[in-house]
Amino acid sequence: MTAIVTFLARSRRLLRRGASVAAALALSSAQAGPAIPDTLAQRLLPCGACHGSEGRATPQGFFPRVAGKPAGYLYNQLDNFRSGRRAYPTMTYFVEQMSDDYLHEIADWFAAQEAPPTPARAPGAPPDELALGQALVRRGDAGRGIPACASCHGDALGGVLPAIPGLLGLPRGYLVEQLGAWRTGQRKALAPDCMARVATALVPADITAVATWLAAQPSSAGPAPATALALARPLPLACGSVPP
Amino acid sequence: MTASRRRAVRGALALAVLLAAGAALVAWLNVRDEEPLAGDAAAFVATPQQVARGAYLAIAGNCAACHTDRGGAPLAGGKGIATPFGTVYASNLTPDARTGIGAWSTAQFWRALHNGRSADGRLLYPAFPYPNFTEITRADSDALFAWLRTQVPVTQPNRPHALRFPYDQQAALAVWRALFFAPGVYTPEAGRSAQWNRGAYLVRGLGHCAACHSPRNAFGATRQSLELSGGLIPLQHWYAPALAASAEAGVADWSSADVAALLKTGWTPRGATLGPMAEVVFRSTAHLDDADIAAMADYLRSLPQAPPRAAHAGDLDPAARAHGAALYRQHCAACHGADGEGGRGAGGIVYVPLAGNRKVQLESPANLIHIVVDGGYPPTTAGDPRPYGMPPFGPSLKDEEIAVLASYVRNAWGNAAPAVGALDVLEAR
């Protein structure tokens, strides 16, 4: 009898101890969980799903790098997606409930990331196509009202601060699609939309030539944007996206 | 005249009388509770208080969500609202005399809100949520009108709706209204506090919460008897969970402060708003004053809660469970925790716990699939100006992988919900 009473008392004690251990475990699991850094890098992890880690996507895929592009350009694009001037459902969905302040912070953060160096790539295009592409990029075609890309995007094609993007290290498919979208009015920029004027002056063969040549160029040091001083003013065309 | 012919004539007459009576009934049901139109636009002089009040009410009603097109002029309309019956285009609410409502009177505006009839007498489609707006008071209707008249007039003709036959017919709409619409201003419930009644007025009227959070029948009408018991938003693959069910989005056991936090900031450790509700918070509830938010919380917390459904766990074989667990460890655990316990920042939870998460275990997997495939951010608000986000896994995971991952999350750590199939994922893409 005593043995039974002792056993019961001990079991009860054990049960109580077990319960308190379980409660402590539940508490600790409610308290635990991974420690999340309070940084923009952490907040912007979702962007990496398409644009690569820290926005450093390579030209292998479709999506453009955003690392190292001028902050003014990046902000304009985020706002363009929010305001319907650019159409890409995933981007619109991500930015439509974001404030101007947050979009500026996001643009500044990606602008501060180093653009990935891109090696020269075999263009896989006939020489005359490459020659046409190079000519349009470097010299334009005054007879057809096409300014040289380099006249606004910088001699090194690395973009110009604060709002003109670099053109190197981008996928060929992305470049073709952007110029095509500008030509058909699917992509717009703040008025006056200089790129729409350039793109409508291009014929499809020009677009593929320019994109093929650009995508084949190396940028070993990372195409850093030049300062605004590098730009000859006035620009060949009026651009609403570029502050005067 | 033979007896049989007499019978036929009598039958035809009876049928004609019946049809005429039916048509008369439908016609009467369509104009009941309408007041004679009086006064013209020019005669209306708004007070500054009315204009200020109207600006606030327009936010509470989120007029711009539909009446401002993406990139379009504010309130000039043109935005398409996709419905199962075709697309309805929101109208121009700016005070342009020809294409907007510049020539309307307060009485005509009231009739649109309260009776669902336009200034020209046309019946309006209930994509414009007048089954909810009918509860708005005349004073609030006049204030809204006063504010709208101060907006910049924009000349932009209304785009005709693109509805299929017979939904494009006014007669069909008249029958619909006779069956499913009854006008009536909100009447305060006796025995309830002023705060509760204010909350009910906002939730049921201007807030038009039921437009998404109530189920719709085959004719697209929300069901009064099932008010706020959850609805699939047509064509968007988002499910607006029941506000009258503790297993879904009911807040009967939440504190007022938690409900207010969700509506003001878009985020609480108990759940984040994404998709259509993020838009509601961003444009509307985040900007409402604390008293109104507290009133809405009071009303929502008092809603009778449907009993929790019997948990029926998904039928996951060990291989699928192991595959799901592996995908979870690889893609989700770094933020949501190895056991779905959520991720902690300096100030507390920043990634919601998935263990015990109601959204994860909804009968309809639509929202979970949406969030895994497309990711997303809660809205930026004054209370949460730099939200953390969820990456889209649609680009990197196959339908089968997303299905097995979702099924695992729905049945791990004590969660229990039906498994998700690859077809469900395909449908949501």
Question: Your description of this structure?
Answer:
The complex is a heterodimer of chains A (244) and B (429). With 244 residues, chain A is mainly α. Chain A has a single domain, classed as Cytochrome Bc1 Complex, Chain D, domain 2, CATH 1.10.760. Chain A is built from eleven helices and no strands. Chain A has helices at residues 2-31, 40-43, 48-51, 71-83, 89-95, 100-112, 127-138, 150-153, 172-184, 194-201, 204-216. In chain A, helix 4 (71-83) packs across helix 6, helix 7 (127-138) packs across helix 11 (204-216) and helix 9 packs across helix 10 (194-201). Chain A is globular and about 65 Å long. Mean pLDDT of chain A is 87; it is low at 1-29. Chain B has 429 residues and is mainly alpha-helical. Chain B has three domains: 20-180, no CATH class; 194-302, Cytochrome Bc1 Complex, Chain D, domain 2 (Orthogonal Bundle), CATH 1.10.760; 318-428, Cytochrome Bc1 Complex, Chain D, domain 2 (Orthogonal Bundle). In chain B, 41% of the residues lie in helices and 6% in strands. Chain B is built from 17 helices and nine strands. Chain B has helices at 3-31, 48-60, 63-67, 106-115, 130-133, 138-148, 170-180, 194-204, 210-213, 256-265, 276-283, 290-302, 318-331, 333-336, 366-374, 399-409, 422-428, and strands at 80-83, 86-89, 162-163, 231-233, 238-240, 267-268, 271-272, 343-345, 348-351. In chain B, the strands form four sheets. Chain B has a three-stranded antiparallel beta sheet, with no helix packed on it. Chain B has a two-stranded antiparallel ribbon with strand order 4-5. In chain B, strands 6-7 form a two-stranded antiparallel sheet. In chain B, a hairpin with a 4-residue loop joins strand 4 (231-233) and strand 5. In chain B, helix 16 crosses helix 17. Chain B starts with a helix and ends with a helix. The model of chain B has no long low-confidence stretch (mean pLDDT 94). The chains are: A mainly alpha (244), B mainly alpha (429). Chains A and B meet through helix 2, helix 3, helix 5 and helix 6 of A and helix 11, helix 14, strand 8 and strand 9 of B.
